[in-house]
Amino acid sequence: MKPMNSSLYRRKIFLSALFITAFVFSFTPKITAQYSNWLPYYDEWQNMKSVEPREYICYRVDKPVVIDGKLDDEAWRFIPWTEYFIDIEGDVKPRPYFRTQAKMAWDETYFYFAADMEETHVWGTLTEHDAIMYFDNDFEIFIDPDSDNHHYYELEINALNSVWDLMLHIPYRDKGERDNGWEIPGLKTAVQVHGTLNDPSDMDRGWSVEFAIPWTVLREYANKPAPPHDGDLWRVNFSRVEWLFQIVDGKYQRKEGERSENWVWSPPGVINMHCPEKYGYVMFSTAKPGNAQFKSDPTEPARIILHGIYYAQRDFFRRYNRYASGFRELGIGPDSHERVVKQPIIELTDDGFTASLVVNAGNRERVLRIRQDSKIGFTP
Questions:
Q1: Is the separation of the CB atoms in 213 and 184 below 8 Å?
Q2: Per the structure, how many domains does the chain have?
């Protein structure tokens, strides 16, 4: 038998391997080409789930807070500060180079907020109401009263006391769009600059802000009492956007092409403020400041389990354009916790899927369910 040419032999081996690879992939579920360029949502969730939401006791004040931005009102005197803000990705990133803290209080008419921000150059350019305020350095509030990931409020302000108030009925990640038409009638805001505004010739100490948001507005999508009852829990978060700047013709100008710093109170663990499941827990109290004890949400471990299923399903849908019918197909095992009475189940629906479990909610067992659009809540 005539010996085979070595180069021809290698070519045949290569073509055989290529044929086998093509044959195998012909029976593999079709995956969108773009998927290979994306970070899997479930991988992001692994970063998120280990970050515990921060907690704060919001005390009721006896007298209305004077909204002037100065933070020296007697009503604030014994109200505690939050922790210093950290990077939106959490402790994996360096500590912010400027300090930021916030306070919260309430009475029968308003939900009060205050923030104090270090800043060596206080500047702002946007003056129009409902402008996209994070194109300036700004301070932002996010409120999800019933912790269902839907119908949450957002309020942003810059150093010029320009305000952007908006509503997210569904998070952006679930194809939601912002509702700029949502307004806050009766809103009070004020800014105090500790230095000089828009003056590059000197150094400033910072700026502070105050808000009074009427309960009559927050009540619309709260699905719970507003004003709240003693011991009620709401989800709240804060963000501070800080840009690099340059001085052009004696005026401040945001550096184009540069990423902003994003410092927050309760970090989600990813660069996305629209993850309401990672907002901090705020407990309302009628006790005197310093005399209440925080009571955590007993369903938080169950919520973590259900959100893990939600993020895994998002990856599965992005790959195969459908949702998995069970854990085996999804490729993850159901997590457990001592408060989870019955393990989670996945059910396909006309709209997508639901994942549900039975959790010990403190005083009774309840069914907690999450949908494909991340809406989470108890079944009736």
A1: yes
A2: 2
